[in-house]
Amino acid sequence: MLGAIIGDIVGSRFEFNNHRSKDFELFGDGCFATDDSIMSLAVAKAIMEASKTKTPNVRDHNFHVKLSKLTVKYMRKIGRKYPNSGFGGMFYRWVFSDDPKPYNSFGNGAAMRVSPAGFAARSERDAERLAETVTAVTHNHEEGIKGAKATAAAIYMACRGAPKREIRERIAGEYYSLDFTIDSIRPTYRFNETCQETVPQAIECFLESASFEDAIRIAISLGGDSDTIGAITGAIAEAYYGVPEDIKGKALAYLDAELRAIYDEWKVFAPADEERHGVPQTD
User: Structure pTM?
Assistant: First the structure.
């Protein structure tokens, strides 16, 4: 999850002022933790609370009912404390509604907050099912679910040391065509808030990278919805490479005490979030 937070913070100042180059200071004036980070932490909190009585299990219907309710609870409880963090209009209304219901969205918010599902899962199927549960409370359109599941599956595979070629084959075979390069689409790529036009691009940013930092820089260089592309890319890159200590320290300074407390709790719950399950194999 920290990789998503880092990608979000680094991309925050470029969301509406794109920087189409890998040459920039990672953390600078205007950086902040947006709704991408805040909702990732809210999802993490929901998963931790749901897991206090039961281990996440794809076959346990009651666990997923409980997780769904807790996701609604914590996204609204935490989200209401950060009303100016960058929420989209429909999500803002959901957060402050007295009767929150899914609203058939396929926005990329489905994917930017889902990284805890990939790290908490015990199997790829678990990752996909957890992703669906925490996503469907708002983004219940099939493309919203698809974007979340693809992101969680990539994180799970990367965390367990799958080679990039296997991750590419899995995503291309099950979710999205990846028949492009970042260099080829950068000149014409524009701001887009749908899963369909951000999730495959973010996954490709990771697949073309040489390190965690390089993945973040590629994601920002693409342009578009920079904080969200950075968050999705950063989550997968963290699972594959880990996070350098200097970048970690700088990013955590952007979290206030309440958000940092959730992060610290998550570190204990899912240490593999920063200490990957496996070592990436040679491609």
Answer: 0.95
